[in-house]
Specification:
heterodimer; A: alpha+beta; Ubiquitin-like (UB roll); DNA polymerase, domain 1; 2 domains; about 15% strand; globular; B: Aldehyde Oxidoreductase, domain 3; Aldehyde Oxidoreductase, domain 4; 3 domains; 7-stranded mixed β-sheet; 5-stranded mixed β-sheet; about 30% helix
């Protein structure tokens, strides 16, 4: 038994037929072939599958595709439509501060921080770390990610303010 | 010596744009036509006789293309060959990719299904019929070596998996002559590597070329190629392994795995359709190798002034149900690393491997050395307390700058310069004021601790039996007629980004910007030989290979330029954009074109610009340093707060500071995880209790303080780059630094030792027990 869904993904309405058990992340990755959204844990604990669903970050491994029918989804691909599109400031900061190594967590990290900085443009270190607590990075120790976020944040100072700190 | 950022290079990484926009393709992302999906049925029992496995109903299930059991493995030898090892009494129970008549751990593969969709494959697992007769399981490694223990395998007489015994000097005399003997028993519990990308593989058999292609999230494509060729009884040239983007590995993706053989076997049956298996996180925690798993007793013989006279280390290693394809690799490194950066005149190590009914243990970041360093740094702190010495002074009294000799091989290891690293650490952390803060807060009733750990990392496989297997590496350089540069490396990537360093090494020698250098890796058809990624050696050894290849290409370019300029080669100079002699010049483009066109090359200069080098390191490469942790402990809850962390490392000459720091910080974060949170837990029947990220706790952003790094740059003499290994230092140094800090914080309770991980309940119980005793 399949159910029709219509989900606006990265500004484009996408229609499909899914089983009731199909997860939103499966619809995004396997039906739409948008593979920037990764699957890391299947228990909603690692955040690699984070997308922005109707304006809020959501772990797409714990939503059914049918639940997202009629919704609007932003995936990482939506931040840079086309291969020549300029990087989002957070993405540029991720490169500059070595905020990623293997890159598997990056989609979730970037989208969660984008949401944070839209809600709280002057987020300081504590707020940034708290916002990242639903997302696991196993490679970087988060330090580069935190620095990247703070470099985009309009916060002017803090205990670990700018890039380059953290070195004696 | 404190380095300014400006001194080293922070090159933007060629792969970064792709990764940060999500366009990189990991195994599960690569599109294939007519793909079949594989799911694995795994043992529910830790130890059982397999009475019946019936796949008939599964084969008839909707969408199923094949369902296989042990009986269907005849196109292979059924298991991977074991690599050589130096250990004694090495035993391996019969093992096959799918269990034959006995299962040895929860998660061991029993049957495999290939179907049109992932969901259909999962559904078909339910149609497989398996009858088990449960047998007694043995879970704890020390108990496993008791004479009356249940056997992990019915076919073996007992549970001894290997022995490793070695010594240097007269240890017994050292202990007889000691003023003080300090003993400590400690555990390094099993850990899970938890690469965020789980394992996965796609296999395709191409009938036209009679060739197998395997895309795998592996750290060692060439080793996997050899293993697959051996078990599938194919020529190595008929097996091509591609490691695309790999989402972390940390040692766990180095060994060849049954699932990689199973997709290959299925792909040959179902050719030409590609066949894919991607591990779930639960499978990853159940069936991907664990790390650590050692329980040890360490003894130091000391003079009253803290000088070490002798050392004994006696450990039981939790091997799990089988050896991985490189058996006893981590224990060998423990033997090579015990003693750290200290002069130890006499030592004896004894490690015994125990088979248990759990998934095998194998390499995990810091393999073997983390266990050794934890033991050494903990016992030194215990000795400092007993001898009433400062933890800094007891280390200073024993540091050496001479080569150190370690059992079992007695190979000389460059001890570097830990005294300087410690000085840098103490100045970076403002040690006196940290102690002042500690005292003030203690006086105010807080539990505050400072812990120190020094380390000597044995990189590149160290002085182990397999040194020859990991110490060399391939590097190639090819320059095309239009001047584009490709670098080839036999190291692989798990995301650490050594491509940038390798590009930089070649670009400096060839006089081109690093951005124009394309680095190729992870495809056995493009790079014919290599050792993959392991042992913090990609730049030190792999970079040296690329350097040598680039030097040969540079020499060739100069001789072609000399021919074009009609002058002897020694008069040719490199200038911006080309080569010159006196006032005459040729452009780089002309030289590259002529090297391929060969219109006017002298007879002794063959055409082409391509070099491949097998580079052997001159010996084991080390890195060293000292780390410091500052913690507070909540008296009421036992919660440990890591407030400050300082790292002083020496990775030799740094080629790419940004990524070296990334390695240092990432290693420290994993070490902090080991210290505070992480532990694989099985129940007494062998069921895994930590089978999701809800139970296996990984460090998150708010667990970690801002880590402050300082760095020395003592060149290694073991390679022409002067580079040392950076990948594992943090995972080695952080656990003992934090453990020492927490023991220091609990000083008022008379706590002498506490095993990792330092979770609140454990710490709280220690505090409660002391309070009840009335301490």
């Amino acid at each position: 038994m399949k159910y029709p869904v219509a989900i606006t993904v990265n500004g484009r309405e996408r229609r499909g037929e899914v089983e009731a058990r199909t997860l939103l992340v499966q619809f995004i990755r396997e039906e739409l072939r948008l593979t920037a959204t990764r699957v890391g844990c299947e228990t909603s604990t690692c955040g690699a599958c984070t997308v922005i669903l109707d304006g809020s970050p959501v772990k797409s491994c714990t939503r059914l595709a049918v639940q997202a029918d009629g919704s609007t989804v932003l995936t990482l691909e939506g931040l840079t439509p086309g291969t020549d599109a300029p990087l989002h400031p957070l993405q540029a900061a991720f490169c500059e501060h070595h905020a990623l190594q293997c890159g598997f967590c990056s989609a979730g990290m970037v989208l969660v921080l984008k949401d944070l900085l839209e809600r709280s443009p002057a987020a300081a270190e504590r707020e940034v770390r708290a916002a990242l607590d639903g997302n696991i990075c196993r490679c970087t120790g988060y330090q580069g990610i935190v620095k990247a976020a703070l470099s985009v944040s309009t916060v002017t100072s803090g205990p670990a303010g700018g890039p380059g700190e953290g070195r004696a | 010596m404190i380095h300014e950022e400006a001194e080293a290079v922070k090159a933007p990484r060629v792969e970064d744009r792709a990764r940060v926009t999500g366009s990189t393709l990991y195994v599960d992302d690569i599109p294939f036509d007519r793909l079949l999906y594989v799911e694995i049925l795994r043992s529910r029992h830790a130890h059982a006789r397999l009475l019946r496995v019936d796949a008939a109903r599964a084969r008839a299930a909707p969408g199923v293309a094949a369902a296989i059991t042990y009986a269907d493995l005849e196109s292979s030898t059924g298991s991977f060959p074991l690599a050589a090892s130096r250990v004694d009494d090495l035993r391996q129970p019969a093992r096959s990719f799918l269990a034959r008549d006995e299962v040895g751990f929860v998660g061991e593969p029993v049957a495999a299904v290939a179907a049109e969709t992932r969901a259909a494959a999962r559904d078909a697992l339910e149609a497989l019929e398996v009858d088990y007769e449960p047998l007694d399981a043995v879970i704890e490694p020390e108990a496993a070596l008791e004479p009356d223990a249940p056997r992990a395998h019915a076919s073996l007489p007992d549970n001894l998996a290997f022995r490793l015994e070695a010594g240097l000097g007269d240890v017994d005399a050292a202990f007889r002559g000691a003023d003080r003997v300090v003993r400590l028993a400690l555990q390094s519990p099993r850990l899970a590597a938890c690469a965020l990308e789980t394992r996965g593989a796609v296999a395709q058999w191409l009938p036209a070329s009679e060739e197998l292609i395997l895309w795998s999230s592996t750290q060692a494509p060439h080793l996997l190629r050899s293993q697959l060729a051996a078990t599938l009884q194919l020529r190595e040239s008929a097996v091509r392994v591609i490691a695309p983007e790999v989402g972390g590995g940390f040692g766990s993706k180095r060994s060849a795995y049954a699932e990689e053989a199973l997709v290959a076997i299925l792909a040959r049956r179902l050719a030409p359709r590609p066949v894919k298996w991607v591990e779930s996180r639960r499978e990853n925690l159940l069936a991907t190798v664990h790390g650590r798993g050692q329980s040890a007793e360490i003894e130091l013989a000391l003079r009253a002034d803290g000088k070490i006279l002798g050392l004994r280390y006696d450990a039981v290693v939790d091997v799990g149900a089988y050896h991985p394809s490189c058996p006893a690799a981590a224990p060998e490194l423990t033997a090579a690393a015990i003693g750290g950066p200290y002069r130890v005149p006499a030592s004896r190590v004894s490690l015994r491997g125990a088979f248990t009914n759990k998934v095998p243990t194998d390499a995990y970041r810091g393999a073997g050395r983390a266990e050794a360093t934890l033991a050494m740094e903990r016992v030194l702190d215990a000795a400092a307390v007993e001898l009433e010495l400062d933890p800094i002074e007891i280390r200073r009294a024993n540091f050496t700058r001479e080569a150190v000799f370690r059992p079992p091989t007695g190979v000389a290891l460059d001890a570097g310069d830990c005294p300087s690293a410690l000085d840098r650490l103490l100045s970076a952390c403002a040690y006196a004021s940290l102690r002042g803060e500690q005292e003030a807060r203690r006086n105010a009733g807080e539990l505050v601790g400072i812990g120190l750990a020094a380390y000597l990392d044995v990189c590149a496989g160290g002085s182990s039996a397999r040194a020859e297997a990991v110490v060399w590496e391939t590097g190639g350089v090819r320059v095309g007629p239009a001047g584009d540069v490709e670098v080839f490396t036999g190291t692989s990537s798990q995301g650490q980004g050594q491509e940038a360093a390798l590009a930089r090494i070649a670009s400096e020698i060839l006089g081109v910007p690093p951005e124009v250098v394309r680095v190729r890796r992870g495809d056995t058809a493009a790079i014919h030989d290599g050792r993959g990624v392991a042992g913090s050696r990609s730049v030190a050894v792999g970079g040296s290979a690329v350097r040598e290849a680039a030097r040969r290409i540079d020499a060739k370019l100069r001789s072609v330029a000399a021919a074009l300029l009609r002058v002897p080669v020694e008069y040719v100079e490199r200038v911006d954009g080309g080569f010159a002699c006196g006032g005459r010049r040729v452009s780089r483009a002309e030289v590259c074109l002529e090297a391929h066109r060969a219109a006017s090359l002298p007879a002794d200069t063959p055409p082409g610009l391509e070099e491949l080098v097998h580079y052997p390191a001159r010996g084991p490469i080390s890195s060293f340093g000292a780390h410091l942790a500052f913690v507070s402990v909540d008296r009421d809850t036992g919660e440990v707060r890591l407030e400050k962390y300082f790292a002083s490392d020496d990775f030799g000459r740094v080629v790419d500071l940004l990524r070296v720091e990334g390695q240092a910080l990432g290693g420290i974060a994993q070490g902090i995880g080991q210290a505070l949170l992480e532990e694989v837990v099985y129940d007494e029947s062998g069921q895994l209790l930590t089978s999701t990220f809800l139970e296996y706790a990984l460090p998150r952003a708010s667990h970690l303080p801002l880590v402050v790094c300082s760095r020395g740059e003592t060149p290694s003499t073991m390679n022409p780059l002067g580079a040392r290994g950076a990948g594992e230092a943090g995972a080695i140094a952080a656990p003992p630094a934090i453990a020492n800090a927490v023991v220091d914080a609990l000083r008022e309770f008379g706590v002498r030792h506490v095993d990792l991980p330092l979770r609140p309940e454990k710490v709280w119980r220690l505090i409660r027990a002391a309070e009840e005793r009335g301490d």
